[in-house]
Each structure stands twice: as C-alpha cells, then as structure tokens.
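As a warm-up, study this chain.
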Amino acid sequence: MARKSIQYVEVAPCVPLGQRGQHAYTYYVSRKDAISIGSVVKIPFGKRIITGIVTVIDIQKPSYPTKQIRTITNIQLTLLQMQYARWLADMAHGGFGFTARLFLPSSFSGLASHIPPSLRQDFGRQARRKKPSAIIEHDADTRREMIAKLTRTRTGQTLILVPEVAMLTAYEKVFA
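Now compare it with the structure written out below.
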C-alpha cells in the first residue's frame, strides 16, 4: 500500500488494561475505508482479535511498526457517548476502551471477545437468565436491606447509585 493511501488512527482496546499502561494504540487503515472517531473496529491485539474504539484519526505515521485494522463494523459511538465513557473511565480510574464497551449494543458479538472460549458458552446462558433490577423504596433502611439481600443472592458486579455522598456511610456499614 502506498503511503498516501494509508491513514493512521488511535484505537482504544475494549479489554482491561493496566492503570499505568497505554490506553490507545496506533493502527493503520486504507484511506478509502470509512472510519471516524467512535467507529467500533476489530483489531489484532497480541495473539487475539478484539474489539476496539477509534479515538483519534489522521495522526502522523509513527516511527514504530503498526498493525492493520481487521474489520470496521457498522457500529459507531456518538460524541456524547464517548465523552460520557471518558468521564466514567476517569472517575473509576479505568481504561477508556474497557469502559466504552458498555455503550455497545448487547447483541454485539464482539463483547464476548475477551472471555476465554471455555467460559463463553456458560457466559451466554448466565446472561440470558439474569435480569437487571431497580429498587425504588422510600424508606432508606428498607431500601438498604433490599439491596443487601439482592447483592448476596447474585454473582458479578452491582452498581448502586446514591444521590449524596453523605449516604455512603450507611451503605458501608451494610456491606462491611
């Protein structure tokens, strides 16, 4: 490929990365391919092909060798989704790509790409069985008890949103 027909882009891999490591890597793609910021792509990452999100386009050719983007999907995150994902990643001290994957459609098969093959079949069954829950209870003590009971019966992660920081101490006592 001639140099003028290639463009270099930064892609944030949708896998957990170390806190001090890079959070975006440089890849190349043909200029005739329709790619923009927010495009969801498949990239070679180590020995695997994983999902990534384009964060910067048309950067200068780096001094090191780069790999080619394998596939450009028809899925694209909006600017608002990307801003929100970046804010969440900063607040949670996590990687942008791993956080931004939460904004991808649940039917997108690329989400399971970081799960080992031995767990993929079981993962699909578990995901179909579990339903998200929302607890709306006016009495704070009853609400905390309901949340504690629900989290004890489930495996995986639980997100609890509280409107004020002052409410966290009561939750710390429940989950201690």
